[in-house]
TrEMBL record:
Pfam families, per database record: dCMP_cyt_deam_1, RibD_C
Keyword field contains Zinc: yes
Its job: Converts 2,5-diamino-6-(ribosylamino)-4(3h)-pyrimidinone 5'-phosphate into 5-amino-6-(ribosylamino)-2,4(1h,3h)-pyrimidinedione 5'-phosphate.
Metal-binding listed as a keyword: yes
Protein name (database record): Riboflavin biosynthesis protein RibD
One Gene Ontology MF term: diaminohydroxyphosphoribosylaminopyrimidine deaminase activity
Length: 350
């Protein structure tokens, strides 16, 4: 480290939190497309803390966030200015579908690497942080940054579906339920939904960021749901898992034929087997859109992580409330959810 960069590096931590926010936001754009990989963001800063590059992992098999960031820095001709890397997840130190990100960082003049979360994947050697340190880089964990805890919550929320799957062997499960002013989930005759257009937009945003859907045979028969992402832009060319719970497998054959064009459809006769079934898929995060019968069964077995209830009042306004069984929720990353806390209702601004 030369004396020039030494003197400026003390000012950098003030910029690190904001850089983490940028990295999380960039990664969040690709949530729903990275499975089985996590959504990860990386921001490169110069010695004064100016942002050089913002990058994220787009898709499994494509470049990891750090490597893409370094490639973009090269393309922009700013690689020699890289002083600090901010990464939401500990850089990988092994060759998987792509080479180690530690090597990508070491191919630059980077001096300090700030890391959000340690890699929770028990199936990879890890040690990226220690390796970079052994190579002479300064490695800092986000907790050490000014206001690190606040930024850390966003990093953990981003990683939550992946971390949950790594530690507990099944995807994160979010239930989304709409309830009308009379306390019923059943839409009016001739309709599949009754919530406001803004709520539908939110529901479709949730479909976008999740890797799969879970429903019941009753919902399929009643609604012939398409489960497409229509009210917000979807990821291109995606194929996701759709689990239909029910012992009867009694769903219309033409619905199944159409669904199989877009989804890998799996039947689950007994929802206590849902975690094991989901574990056979690459999904990190699934969303349940089912009727009251299946929701009761999932509730009885604690087979959910977040429960999002969209309740409608007599004036036709939607009230959102979220319960989460854990200390973190990926739902907190929707900007409009920023004011939501556990068990507390809120009104998303869409
Ligand atoms: N407002 C909202 O958010 C939503 C409302 N709906 C509405 O809900 C209504 C349908 O309700 P409902 O019939 O309860 O639909 P469900 O989606 O809950 O499907 C019910 C079926 O789920 C299966 N099931 C029940 N328990 C289990 C279990 N433990 N393990 C595996 N499978 C199980 C059974 O299938 P089987 O008989 O084959 O064994 C059962 O018949 C429709 O009017 C629909 O529009 C639907 C989704 C969301
Ligand atoms: N009723 C209801 C929902 N219901 C869910 O939406 C499904 C229909 O999806 P699609 O065929 O893609 O339009 C339906 O079968 C059920 O799972 N969703 C909501 O956001 N608000 C609502 O009021």
């Amino acid at each position: 480290m030369n004396s020039f960069s030494q003197s400026f590096s003390y000012a950098l931590p003030e910029r690190v939190g904001a850089a983490f926010d940028l990295a999380v936001s960039e990664a969040w754009r690709f949530a729903g497309q990275t499975a089985p990989n996590p959504a990860v963001g990386c921001v490169l800063l110069d010695v004064q803390g100016n942002v050089l590059v913002i990058a994220a992992h787009h898709k499994a098999g494509e470049l990891h966030a750090e490597r893409l960031a370094v490639e973009q820095a090269r393309a922009l001709g700013v690689v020699e200015r890289i002083h600090t890397a901010v990464v939401t997840l500990e850089p990988c130190n092994h060759t998987g579908r792509t080479p180690p990100c530690t090597q990508a960082l070491l191919s630059t003049p980077v001096q300090t690497v700030w890391i959000g979360c340690a890699d929770p994947n028990p199936h990879v050697p890890g040690g990226g942080a220690a390796y970079l340190q052994a190579k002479g880089l300064t490695v800092r964990w986000l907790e050490q940054a000014p206001n690190g805890a606040a930024y850390m919550a966003r990093c953990r929320a981003l990683l939550a579906p992946f971390a949950w799957r790594m530690v507990h062997g099944r995807p994160w499960i979010t239930v989304k339920q709409a309830v009308n002013a009379q306390g019923s989930m059943v839409p009016p005759v001739g309709h599949k939904t009754f919530t406001t257009p803004q709520s539908l937009q939110f529901a479709h945003a949730l479909r976008r960021v999740t890797d799969g859907l879970v429903t019941g045979t009753g919902t399929v028969r009643a609604d012939l749901p398409s489960f497409t992402v229509r009210h917000v832009p979807d990821h291109p060319n995606r194929r996701r898992v759709l689990v239909v719970c029910g012992a009867s497998r009694n769903v219309p054959s033409n619905w199944l034929e159409q669904a199989e064009q877009r989804f890998d459809v799996l039947f689950c006769p007994d929802c206590s087997d849902l975690p094991a079934l989901l574990a056979t898929t690459p999904a990190l995060w699934v969303m349940v859109e089912a009727g009251p019968t299946l929701l009761r069964a999932l509730c009885a077995q604690n087979l959910w992580d977040d429960w999002l209830s969209i309740g409608q009042d007599a004036q036709g306004r939607d009230h959102f409330s979220v319960s989460t069984r854990h200390d973190i929720s990926p739902l907190s990353l929707f900007p409009e959810w920023a004011r939501c806390t556990q068990e507390q209702a809120c009104f998303p601004v869409l």
